[in-house]
Design brief:
This protein has 439 residues and is of the alpha+beta class. The protein has 14 helices and 21 strands. Helix 7 runs antiparallel to helix 8, helix 10 runs antiparallel to helix 11 and helix 12 packs across helix 14.
Length: 439
């Protein structure tokens, strides 16, 4: 039976603490039928409904003043079809649990983002992605999905069935219904060799096309107030596995990347003038290393230092110019930025509101330590990103509205027309969707 928490559901907060909501009640359904019933009951009570995963979005995409659905009981693998190369998984399953379960079965997703705390439905609905020359976002690996719509009915969607819904709902922002299950394309478990090394920013930008072409997965982090980056190249390997040693892994991934970095950000927040010096030390702290491990362990890293993030997708060919403009803006400003800027890529896909819809994309993500004022930095960065036709990540801070997004996405009207059909009363609406998709 589902658990309904009424009256005392109180305040919901996202991971970063920059979004809060006050739902009338929370529902934890134990089955698709119970979720459908919760949607119908919300309609009877005149309440809006939103599902929330682990709260890793920095926008209010999942916030509601109505009924908050928590899918934590809708977890686990429903079925594995080895012949088709697919796995169907319940929507509330955290990516980290899916990765472990797939590895146990000798299977893997083709590509991943850099964290795996999110639920599968939350990650795909907001367009979560990693970096890849040929392999795209997590949503692009979806082969089918199950969706509870505004009248409580359950739609099964794929390229063959309800294809128009499938095209949109893979990155559906929670606007078309509540996803209850996802079928992913998977492949036999594989190894990746990661090569991490520092490199001057000027060299990375000058050689970016070559680095992108030669590596299956290339990304880098630029440290503001410096001309330095850390680069990471991930490529498939025949093995043998050579994972990061337990001690060195703890030292670099936990002690330096999380523990020392946390303290450095505390110092930077208290004494902003110290940030450029801290950035210089941070950019030199991590040494070059190479290691080989199963894919998800290479794609993902622990992220324990809390922050607020904005990320935009620009056309891949505009990356170097966009990043040079961002660096020039930081250099001439009084801003003090203690977090590195993350740069990744994705090939064009066919998902209606994917940030890579119809175009090869490069992603530039700017971050600020939680509790530090981020508005001036993000506003200045956003002006640069939008000047290059940037599309904001749906789950990260931005100020764009439906007018801008209708210009940025050629198929925007296709999505909103589908929404009008599936959710005419805006049962799944909220203030964020009103701003981004229109009334």
């Amino acid at each position: 039976m589902s658990t309904t928490v009424s009256g005392k559901s109180g305040t919901w907060r996202n991971w970063a603490g920059n979004v809060t909501a006050h739902p009338v009640r929370e529902v934890v359904p134990a089955s698709v039928e119970e979720l459908s019933a919760a949607v119908c009951k919300a309609a009877e009570d005149g309440l809006r409904v939103k599902a929330v995963g682990t709260g890793h979005s920095f926008t209010a995409a999942a916030a509601t003043d109505g009924v908050l659905i928590r899918p934590q009981l809708l977890t686990g693998i429903r079925r594995i079809d080895r012949e088709a190369g697919t796995v169907t998984v319940e929507a509330g399953t955290p990516l980290k649990r899916l990765n472990v379960a797939l590895a146990r079965e000798g299977l893997s997703l083709t590509n991943m983002g850099d964290i795996m705390e999110q639920t599968v439905s939350g990650a795909t609905s907001t367009g979560t992605h990693g970096t890849g020359r040929d392999s795209a976002s997590i949503a692009a690996q979806i082969r089918g999905l199950e969706l509870v719509t505004a009248d409580g009915s359950v739609l099964t969607c794929s390229e063959e069935e309800n294809a128009d819904v499938f095209a949109a709902a893979r990155v559906g922002l929670g606007a078309l219904g509540i996803i209850t299950a996802i079928t992913f394309a998977v492949e036999p478990l594989f190894l990746l060799t990661a090569r991490e090394e520092p490199m001057p920013l000027d060299r990375v930008l000058a050689e970016f096309d070559e680095l992108w072409t030669e590596n299956e997965h290339f990304e880098f982090y630029w440290f503001p107030h410096t001309g330095s980056t850390n680069t990471k190249r991930n490529n498939r390997s025949a093995g043998p596995p050579k994972p990061v040693g337990q001690l060195s892994g703890w030292f670099e991934d936990e002690f330096l990347s999380n523990g020392v970095f946390q303290v450095a950000n505390w110092v930077g927040r208290a004494v902003p003038a110290a940030v450029p010096a801290i950035a210089g030390v941070s950019s030199r702290a991590l040494s070059a290393r190479t290691y080989t491990d199963i894919a998800y362990r290479v794609f993902t890293s622990p992220r324990r230092v809390r922050f607020v993030e904005m990320e935009y997708a620009v056309p891949r060919e505009a990356l170097a110019e966009t990043l040079r403009e961002l660096k020039a803006m930081v250099d001439r400003s009084t801003l003090r930025v203690s977090f590195p800027v993350e740069v990744r890529t994705a090939p064009a896909d066919d998902i209606t509101l994917s940030t890579a819809s119809g175009r090869d994309s490069a992603y530039i993500a700017v971050h600020m330590f939680r509790g530090t004022s981020y508005q001036a930095y993000f506003t200045a960065a956003e002006q640069i990103f939008t000047a290059h036709g940037g599309r904001p990540h749906w789950g990260k801070v931005h100020t764009r509205d439906a007018d801008y997004l209708a210009e940025a996405y050629p198929r925007f009207g296709e999505f909103t027309a589908l929404r009008d059909r599936l959710d005419p009363d805006r049962r799944f609406g909220n203030d964020y969707l009103r701003r981004t998709l229109g009334a």
